[in-house]
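Fig. S4 source data, part A: sequence.
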Amino acid sequence: MEKKEANAMEMAAQANEKREKTEEAAQVWVKINIFLDFIIGTNTKFILI
């Protein structure tokens, strides 16, 4: 039983780590999009994506 609990805790920690990395990447992507908007305007950005 203890082994299963430890395993579950480890899996939860890994999932949390992945979620944090995903959130960081999303924030970076938002900053890149804002930067692109500023430089080339919204219409051009939609054509590129």
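Fig. S4 source data, part B ends here. The chain has a mean pLDDT of 83.
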